[in-house]
Amino acid sequence: MAPHPSTLLEPHTPPALATEPHVIVRGEGITVWDSEGRSYLDGTSGMLCTNLGYSQPRLVRAAARQMVELPFFASFAHRTSDVALALAEDLARVAPLPMGRTFFANSGAEANDSAFKLAWYYHRCLGRHERFKILSQEKGYHGTTVAAGSATGLEFIHRGFGLPLASYVKVPCPDPHGPLGQGMSEERFVERLIGRLERLIAVEDPDTIAAFIAEPILSAGGLIIPPPSYYPRVQEVLARHDILFILDEVVTGFGRTGAMFATTEFGLAPDLITLAKGLSSAYAPISAVLVGRRVMNAIAEGSPDIGAFGHGFTYSGHPVAAAVAREALAIVLEENVPGHVRETAPTLMQALADAFRGEESVRDVRGHGFLAAVTFVTGAGGRPEGDWGAQVMAEAVGHGLLVRAVGDTVILAPPLISTDDEIRTMVELLEKSYHSALAGTYATW
Ligand code: PLP
What we know:
This protein is an alpha/beta fold and 445 residues long. It is 39% helix and 16% strand. It has helices at residues 45-48, 57-69, 82-94, 108-125, 146-151, 155-158, 186-204, 230-241, 262-265, 293-306, 319-334, 337-356, 388-398, 420-439, and strands at residues 24-28, 31-34, 39-42, 99-105, 133-137, 168-171, 209-214, 244-248, 272-275, 287-292, 362-368, 371-376, 401-402, 404-406, 409-412. The protein binds pyridoxal-5'-phosphate (PLP). The site of pyridoxal-5'-phosphate has 15 residues, from helix 4. Residues 47, 107-109, 112, 141-143, 215, 219-220, 248, 250-251, 276 line the site of pyridoxal-5'-phosphate.
């Protein structure tokens, strides 16, 4: 089969695909249009990132103004731009942890790589030269660079690349429906997970472990919602060994869960928080690491002995991206986007429950804020394992809805500006897509 003639090497796509890619050409509100003129409700918010929809005029104006004023200046070697400084100030005002400083990068993966380096630098500043290991969860997703990809707990990100690197160690996935959690009370499941974590730390030797990274809700792994008591218990274990806790809020930050940050909502106290996606509502590539005060103080004190923080990117704190992020944050605050999500999320859950609960082929319906999922019974209807998600997703395209598939799960993550009516329409389209998949009208989209 000859590959299709496009010259674009597409991320997360089999290179041998012979079909043309689906090309999106325009967006407005929560709707996008393809090159054939067909419209779709975007139930994926791009990649869980276009939180404010596609035609936010304030974001466009902020970018244009900054392009005219100062399109670029680097933040290297103690010279920076006014707008990068101002964005760091804005973030310090809303940060859900006692703030030290903010480091800027361009993607979620770069933010996580930067957080690892900050953790290593922190331990070196304290004279701990053996602390390089990074703990993360099976099915966690932190990006695909060599370091963030090593922390990601999904096999297809590692295969063929010699990953994960040796110093990246996995802990079990906190999935109540997974092999460790099934049929257990929350209490016993969490005991089990914490027991495993403690044993792993003892076997690896705490003096070799720099940090633990995790998402509050595991998105790309299939929308896995850990039991509420899990992270508070993890934190206690980490604190005992001064293993830094990096909370990856790349997806959850800026309102997706119905709070400004999941950190506050779940009562967590991470040492570092990574942010991307909703930071600029995806209108410009920018990410950030919020460095807590305790870590920052240790770094500031210890660094004269070991030299400058040898890490950064040409586009760290890019002025146009920073100006867009400042405006996105202003909109999220002024329009109380987290409050809107909190008020509207029950409509999403109710509509999904009405449409899917009790269906023979449905294993469960779950969600939090504007992150929701339906998992189908593996093998139901004689389908191969992991086929349900892709099939429902393909049918959804035919019905004018974009959703995401992970194995037998479909994820619905509407833009955070979606109204009750728009949410109900999305769920109606998803229900139709499920019935098309059930009827076996194999989609050709
Ligand atoms: N962290 C989380 C939780 C994510 O979901 C993602 C991307 O989906 C990343 C990190 C990586 O972000 P990026 O694709 O911008 O590198």
